Amino acid sequence: MQNKAIEQIKNSTELPVIMAPMFLISNPKMVINACTSGIIGTFPALNARNGDILEDWMKEITTELEKQSEANPNRKIGPWGINFIVHRSNKRYMEDLKLIEKYQPPVVITSLGDPGPVVDIVHQYGGVVLSDVINIKFAKKAIEKGADGLVLVASGAGGHGGTYNPIPFVHEVREFFDGPIVLSGGMSKGEDILVAELLGADYAYVGTRFIPAEESGAQEEYKNMIVDSSIEDIIYTDAFSGVHANYLIPSIVNAGLDPTNLQKKETIDFSKGKDGEVKAWKDVWGAGQGVGSITKIQTVSEIVEELKNDYYKAVQKVSQKSGEFAYER
Questions:
Q1: pTM for this structure?
Q2: 282 in Cβ contact with 252 (< 8 Å)
Q3: Which residues make Cβ contacts (< 8 Å) with residue 102, sequence separation at least 6?
Q4: Which of 14, 83, 235, 298 has the lowest CB atom count within 10 Å?
């Protein structure tokens, strides 16, 4: 049953990309436009301020995608997904899990904990559970708890990134797991998607590329900072959420802090901040190492179209190179 669900998701996309869920940035409009552009669109459950708003969002996404599918029967509409924090810090755990059961997102991405209880519910309605992991230990644990696939969060990923180089990370996971792998870590161009596939991943997890989307919930200053920044503007620290993450140095400076003298935050925190208090994501902004190749603000559909064009150009280039190599041999 799960193999069938996984296959259905693969067949419903035009490009092997998941628009990564981004805290305080992703919203229903982004998700809908990503899906109608032929990729998987996702958002974090906690982006909705409370359960009532989350239900409104899930209802809006499911209703609009159903309308789009009916109006465009020959068009590939990508599935939607939700990112669900399974860590004990998530005070809405049970409330949001009930909404997942009700609205049945085809893809559920779990973070920071045991995906087991989520798997039990999602499998009942035929959905797929992906667990994001930063190392081999957590990858094996997620599989043991029933996750259908893994999001390998490698070094260079925006937000809570890992430290592993993506190449050996994928290779080592493939030694013990043959299910779906999504690769995350600094990918922002179409050729990056092909590289992920060549390594052995099934999907590329693209987040930072969508921060400056017109539909994005990011502040205009944030969007412009993404466009203006380079890889040298990224810092990896646990000072703001208690978990190591990649942030934009200019946003730290703008918050009145010294990026060379940051102290570790002792507790994991996903709140949105209070007046006078510097908070991760609200005041200090996340971004991945692929930020340097992002040069303009575009709509989600324009971004996806650009990714498609660059992806197929890369496919063609690899095919040509392969032919030249075979001829030389």
A1: 0.93
A2: no
A3: 55, 58
A4: 14
